[in-house]
Amino acid sequence: MNQGNEHIQTSINWDEIRSHFPVLQQHVNGKPLSYLDNGASSELPQVVIDRINAYHTNEHANVHRGIHSLSQHATDAYEQARKKVRALINARYEEEIIYTTGTTDSINLVANSYGRKHFKEGDEIIVSEMEHHANIVPWQMIAEQTGALLKVVPVDDQGELIMDEYYKLLSDRTKMVALIHVSNVLGTINPVEEIIEAAHARNIPVLLDGAQAVPHSAVDVQNLDVDFYAFSAHKMCGPTGFGILYGKKELLDEMPPYRGGGDMIDKVTFEKTTWNDLPHKFEAGTPPIAAGVGFGVSIDYLNTIGMEIIEQREQELLQYATKKLEAVDGLQIIGTSSKKASVISFLLDGIHPTDAGTILDKEGIAVRTGHHCAQPLMDRFNIPGTLRASISFYNNEDDIDRLVKGIEYTKEFFG
Ligand code: PMP
């Protein structure tokens, strides 16, 4: 991630890019839509919608098991996406890309498969205070079953991990480090290279929750040397119900399957069943084929702009929005790390986030309010929730100006 420090010359027409997203062209509550909830789910460009429609219209068949042409065609289209994901994150092998239903499913897979095999009484799993529930609860559940314990890296007032505490927590008892790459609440980009290096010095595997990192920057899993990496298609201009678990081949090879059923087997008898090869060992049952095919086109779409250019544009918008919001009287930004992705959480003096979010919605401005699936982080800051504007490359300065105007109106409304 270059956090906007390098200047890449681009001739991208951002208005034209915005016009690729039909959802953004509409009015909501009689006002033009400013969609600033991209952290929850991003919108789909027309090419992705068209590809999914075409698949359903002309190409649908089940994958991997049909001899007939339609099934083979569907299999090819579905497997093409795996090649694109491999290239996107620079995994070494295609079979290191496991299709899941999303980040949550990916983390559950590792917790259940790797965790059940390796964790025992007294072992420790390191998470942090800024985790999404998806990177807390699966570990808690597996810890309860195996006798392992969760250890938590605290967060400072700026919303950064307290690295000294991380180093103190690492020990011979640590069997997994599972941390968020980019915080969905604070925007903090964590120092994952340093985190991974320190864990590997003790032979501890690292899982990163990349749900908010892959959509905003070029991620290279070989460069990071990360062991497991999880993300979701619907946060990167793709459909819901589809996601990725990257895992190093040598780790995935020795992990038992997580779910049983069709496709994940080699030979089934009542006495004994043997497993299919990677990646299918972890992909039981009929998968979300249309979503996978569509996600392949989402990756193509992002690549035509370029992840570095997307990151640079989002950093520009982040800086613009931060400056504007900082100037609003009675507004407090939660998460002020110097290394941030385009997520801004904030509070308004004396106005509950839900009330403010409701008024903004009436103005056609979509922001998220609440705990953002990070209740322990809310407890850390001693707040019930925040408002959150999460910015994508297809947003513009006008969306941010409208947000600021909407906030001023909200303040007037509540007197
Ligand atoms: N981790 C982070 C950081 C997230 O932002 C999200 C989505 N809000 C998730 C995990 C869960 O993703 P999904 O619901 O797609 O499984």
Q: Which shape, going by the Cα principal axes? A: globular
**Oligomeric state as shown:** single chain
> What is the number of helices?
14
CATH topology of the largest domain: Aspartate Aminotransferase, domain 2
Strand order of the largest sheet: 4-10-9-8-7-5-6
Roughly how many Å apart are the termini?
Answer: 42 Å
Task: Explain this structure.
It is a single chain. The chain is of the alpha/beta class and 415 residues long. The protein is built from 14 helices and 17 strands. The strands form 5 sheets. A 7-stranded mixed β-sheet has the order 4-10-9-8-7-5-6, sandwiched between helices. A hairpin with a 2-residue loop joins strand 1 and strand 2. The longest helix is centred in the first third of the chain and has 21 residues. 4'-deoxy-4'-aminopyridoxal-5'-phosphate binds next to helix 4.
Overview in brief:
It is built from 14 helices and 17 strands. It is of the alpha/beta class and 415 residues long. It folds into two domains: 140 residues, Aspartate Aminotransferase, domain 1; 255 residues, Aspartate Aminotransferase, domain 2.
Index terms:
415 residues; alpha/beta; Aspartate Aminotransferase, domain 1; Aspartate Aminotransferase, domain 2; 7-stranded mixed β-sheet; 39% helix; disordered N terminus
Topology:
Elements: H1 14-19, E1 27-28, E2 31-32, E3 34-35, H2 46-59, H3 69-89, E4 97-100, H4 103-118, E5 124-128, H5 137-146, E6 149-153, H6 163-169, E7 174-180, H7 192-200, E8 206-209, H8 221-224, E9 228-232, E10 243-247, H9 249-253, E11 265-268, E12 273-275, H10 289-305, H11 307-326, E13 331-334, E14 343-348, H12 353-362, E15 365-366, E16 368-370, H13 375-380, E17 386-390, H14 397-413
Parallel strand pairs: 3-15, 5-6, 5-7, 7-8, 8-9
Antiparallel strand pairs: 1-2, 4-10, 9-10, 11-12, 13-14, 14-17, 16-17
Helix pairs in contact: 2-10, 3-10, 4-5, 11-14
Bound molecules: 4'-deoxy-4'-aminopyridoxal-5'-phosphate (PMP).
